[in-house]
User: Which sequence fits this backbone?
């Protein structure tokens, strides 16, 4: 069978892989995304934000506007709640489940997060193909993303992380493609990568860690240039300037849309309206009340107001308190061990309980941890003990992504001292560990000169283990009914859920 597939034209093989990834992405992230028909975790916040965009109300939120606007687009396009009075959604910045409008459908609000999650699977396949150079291996290793339970349960809800993940994977894929080039890079290449990073940041600020890719990329790029040293400063300024300009353009476009959509003054009688009015500058208020053109100066003023609100809101976020009963937060150092899963919701009836549990694919999670440990040992042996490496190309990628993982952890260890953090804050770090899994596997295969059949066979075994583990925890992911004894079986390796 493998020989038959290998005989197909390259374009046909690529299309087959893309179609299969798209189908798996649809069934894992999109199908049934309107269940459960209740809000959970941050959905209670983000639905109110999206509705304010739909109603055209000027407002501020704790996160940048892009993801929230995309959620609103899904709700608007779906028309699922077109005939329902949703006024209650904009009264406060949080809505209790029992105050949701009667007959409300979650299909529209969850539509765009689910679609972006599925589309990110296609980007992950492209990234895997760039790293392995083999379509079948890229398909098999795409299971790391497609069958990650924590991604599925969180991304198919009214959350922002699937948008951020989409742009992060796109940026990492572009980074790898640029790194592989032997000729000097153009300023347009830096600008394109900068735009992708800007889009990720405009969903959630912690994606700013991706900016570390630019000095690393330019350092490598500088060694491939044939320009005289005297011309290097101009080249550096051009590429740095294009990167910064691309990010600023993204910021400007996002906040221009935010400004243009919000043409109605917040209701001063509502809790949400009071918060927004307190943080609106006179320039912003004048625009909303009197109208006018969306000028760069106005957008800059609105952007300043928005970021001031974000800063004020984050100052009010509590810090981790491990002694607090029911504390869902966790320390970043515990994320590596899959510690502190979160119960988003549970519903019991007739001896069965349905859970919405933020719990990951344990096999993949610990495989990622093993890849981090192996990568660190490999780097220390080479850099400190001067041991040679057998595959310089793959080793270089291991160093790059291990360094990026280190930046991620240092950033979030710092953030953990400022506010409470949760397991889903590890999602970008988890993604990097999955990239390291593939790189370490490739390095070991090259080290031991594994044949093509052994490579494919080992990748198939890993994929089957990933899928099998996913199916084992799937009831906790998809709100499927379990008896208490069935639930307790999911705690066999470590404590995942408090069974009811």
Assistant:
């Amino acid at each position: 069978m493998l020989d038959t597939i290998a005989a197909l034209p390259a374009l046909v093989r690529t299309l087959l892989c893309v179609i299969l990834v798209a189908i798996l992405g649809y069934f894992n992230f999109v199908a049934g995304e309107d269940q459960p028909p209740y809000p959970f975790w941050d959905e209670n916040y983000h639905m109110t934000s999206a509705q304010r965009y739909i109603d055209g109300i000027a407002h501020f939120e704790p996160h940048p506007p892009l993801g929230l606007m995309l959620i609103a687009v899904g709700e608007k396009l779906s028309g699922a709640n077109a005939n329902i009075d949703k006024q209650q959604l904009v009264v406060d910045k949080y809505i209790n489940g029992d105050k949701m409008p009667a007959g409300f459908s979650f299909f529209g609000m969850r539509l765009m997060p689910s679609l972006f999650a599925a589309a990110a699977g296609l980007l992950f396949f492209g990234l895997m193909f760039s790293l392995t150079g083999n379509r079948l291996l890229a398909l098999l290793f795409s299971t790391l993303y497609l069958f990650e339970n924590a991604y599925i349960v969180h991304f198919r809800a009214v959350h922002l992380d699937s948008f951020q993940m989409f742009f992060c994977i796109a940026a990492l894929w572009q980074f790898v493609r640029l790194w592989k080039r032997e000729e000097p890079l153009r300023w347009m290449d830096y600008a394109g990568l900068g735009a992708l990073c800007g889009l990720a940041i405009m969903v959630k600020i912690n994606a700013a860690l991706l900016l570390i890719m630019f000095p690393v990329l330019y350092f490598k790029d500088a060694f491939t240039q044939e320009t005289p040293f005297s011309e290097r400063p101009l080249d550096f300024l051009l590429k740095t300037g294009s990167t910064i300009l691309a990010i600023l353009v993204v910021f400007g476009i996002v906040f221009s849309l935010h400004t243009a959509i919000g043409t109605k003054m917040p209701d001063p009688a509502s809790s949400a309206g009071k918060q927004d009015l307190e943080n609106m500058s006179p320039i912003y208020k004048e625009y909303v009340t009197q109208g006018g053109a969306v000028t760069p100066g106005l957008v800059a003023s609105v952007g300043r107001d928005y970021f001031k609100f974000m800063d004020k809101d984050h100052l009010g976020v509590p810090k981790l308190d491990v002694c607090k009963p029911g504390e869902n937060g966790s320390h970043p150092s515990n994320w590596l061990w899959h510690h502190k899963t979160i119960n988003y919701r549970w519903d019991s009836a007739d001896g069965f309980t349905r859970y919405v549990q933020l719990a990951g694919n344990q096999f993949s999670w610990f495989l990622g941890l093993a890849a981090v440990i192996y990568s660190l040992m490999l780097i220390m042996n080479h850099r400190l003990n001067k041991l040679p490496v057998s595959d310089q190309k793959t080793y270089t990628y291991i160093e790059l992504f291990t360094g990026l993982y280190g930046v991620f952890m240092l950033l979030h260890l710092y953030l953990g001292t400022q506010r409470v953090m949760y397991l889903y804050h590890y999602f970008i770090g988890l993604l990097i560990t999955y990239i390291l899994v593939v790189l370490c596997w490739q390095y070991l295969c090259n080290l031991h000169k594994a044949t093509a059949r052994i490579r494919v066979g080992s990748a198939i075994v890993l994929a089957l283990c990933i899928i099998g583990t996913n199916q084992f925890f799937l009831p906790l992911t998809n709100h499927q009914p379990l008896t208490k004894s069935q639930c307790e079986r999911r705690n066999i390796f470590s404590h995942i859920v408090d069974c009811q």
Notes: Strands lie at 342-349, 352-358, 481-482. The chain has a mean pLDDT of 93. The two ends are 47 Å apart (CA to CA). The longest strand covers residues 342-349.
